[in-house]
Amino acid sequence: MYLSKDEERMLVGELGYAAQKAMEILVALGKIYDAERLIPIKSAHVSGVSYANVGEDGLEFLEGLASDGRVVVKTTLNPAGMDLERWQLMNVSREFAENQLRVIKVYKRMGIEVTCTCTPYLVGNEPRTGDHVAWSESSAVIYANSVIGARTNRESGISALAAAIAGRTPFYGLHVEENRQPTVEVRVPQPKEELEFACLGILVGRLVGDGIPLFKGISHAEPDELKALGAALASVGGVPMFHVEGITPEAGRYTGKITDRITITESDIMGVKEEYACEAYPDLIFLGCPHLSLAEMERIASALAGKKVKKNLWLCCSRRVKLEADRLGITQAIEAAGGTILCDTCPIVAPIRDLGVKAVATNSAKGAWYSRNLNNLCVKLMSTEECIREAHSSIPYQTESYFYYESTP
Ligand code: F3S
User: Fold this and answer.
1) pLDDT value at residue 395
2) N or C end of the chain, less CB within 10 A?
3) Is the CB of 367 under 6 A from ligand 1?
4) Angle, helices 194-208/223-236, rounded to nearest 10 degrees
5) Which residue numbers in the chain have pLDDT < 50?
6) Secondary structure (DSSP) of 168-220
7) Which pLDDT value is given to residue 401?
8) 248: helix, coil or strand?
9) What whole-number distance in Å separates Cα of residue 357 and Cα of residue 242?
10) Which residues contact 268 (CB under 8 A, 6 or more apart)?
């Protein structure tokens, strides 16, 4: 792999410990993927923030990097294991909270913005079409590639951090125009709401693996709907990017690589919802996976207006979106109805089983998938409106045993 003089100096340690480690990681990656060189990046987004995932070994590694390492491009951070300011609301232990704050401090020392959100594109990390970036967090990666038209591979937290410190990433995969072509054409009926976009994502993600689908048949889609579609697509498989004919920026630019054609029906889409039909009483209903946009917060506030929820309702968003919601009176409306707004975190990266949660309801297909497969929870997948109705109801879905579990597929 070709390295410039500066890159060689980094690699031999002339520019410090962190730069050397970063370069070692990037060169190793480049060799694995046959990259001919490194390319400069405009921004990075780093996952691996929850102390539940980082642990003491990870923290030690990060502290080593922070001894002399600083990021050289705009770099944002994925959600942590708790709301950094109101962690008591989540009942996480003081010990966990202190350790989580240690992780945050180390990232901050490296110059990373403590955004703690999986929607960096809603909090100022907004690449332009064609920009090369190094993002981790699969839902953010797929949004950047597909909806924004920026170029990033599905980085791990470590490789995104290395790229942020070095300001570069290996030139391979989705940085190369040719690799951004769709591989599977997917004919679909127009999804009617966000949940249907999300279910479609789960379904197609399973079918195409790490292929790139080109959707045909969708005549309109809001950014939040594409957010839900992408998050679901990327959660079940390795899909790094999708195209929607007539909507996403690179759809129609190329069609030479399509090898498969799939047709999806409405009942296929709704079949996914039926797979997540937990009948246990939900300890928690959560919305905001990926983190809610201001428009979504606004819609939820209107749906909650004048009512009082009877079950735990968590709404997860970035602190930036919450500040906007505060300013517009949205926060007050949600909290008056008994909803809890949490920033910096989500029920997937938080130590949710330690909090005694066993059954959840959500409108997020990604959230449903991880709640079941990672956190081993009983999950009900519902539309936003159904979730809110459920939060208002004092009656469980059906009176089954509280300790009912679905089997993991
Ligand atoms: Fe974001 Fe957590 Fe979902 S990081 S995409 S809210 S799993």
Assistant:
1) 61
2) C
3) yes
4) 30
5) 397-409
6) EEES-GGGSGGGGS--EEEE-PPP-SHHHHHHHHHHHHHHHTT--EEEES---
7) 32
8) coil
9) 34
10) 203
Residues 92 and 139 in one domain: yes
Q: What is the tally of structural domains in the chain?
A: 3
Q: Ligand 1 atom 3: the closest Cα is on which residue?
A: 289
In a domain? residue 351:
yes
Total-model pTM: 0.94
In a domain, 134, yes or no: yes
Residues with Cβ < 8 Å from 212, sequence gap 6 or more? Answer: 180, 181, 182, 183, 184, 239, 240, 241, 242, 243
Question: Would you say the CB of residue 292 lies under 6 angstroms from ligand 1?
Answer: no
- At residue 396, the pLDDT reads 55
Report pLDDT for 354.
81
CATH number of the domain residue 322 falls in: 3.30.499.10
Q: Is the dihedral of CA 405, 353, 91, 136 positive or negative?
A: negative
How many CB atoms sit inside 10 A of residue 67's CB? 12
| Residue nearest atom 4 of ligand 1, based on CA coordinates | 118
Per-residue three-class SS string for 36-99: CCEEECCEEEECCCCHHHHHHHHHHHHHHHHCCCCCCCEEEECCECCCCCCHHHHCCCHHHHHH
Q: Which domain holds residue 145?
A: 5-177
Exposure string (b/e) for 136-150, b if CB count within 10 Å is 16 or more?
bbbbbbbbbbbbbbb
Q: What is the pLDDT of residue 255?
A: 72
In the numeric block, which tokens belong to residue 366? 């990604």
- 63 Cα to the center of ligand 1, angstroms: 25
Question: Residue 144 gets which letter from DSSP?
Answer: I
pLDDT value of residue 394: 67
Domain co-membership, 130 together with 81? yes
Ligand 1 pocket member 284 (CB < 6 A): no
Q: Which residues contact 60 (CB under 8 A, 6 or more apart)?
A: none
Ligand 1 binding pocket includes 120 (Cβ within 6 Å): no
CA angle (81, 87, 92) in 5-degree steps = 70
pLDDT given at position 402:
32
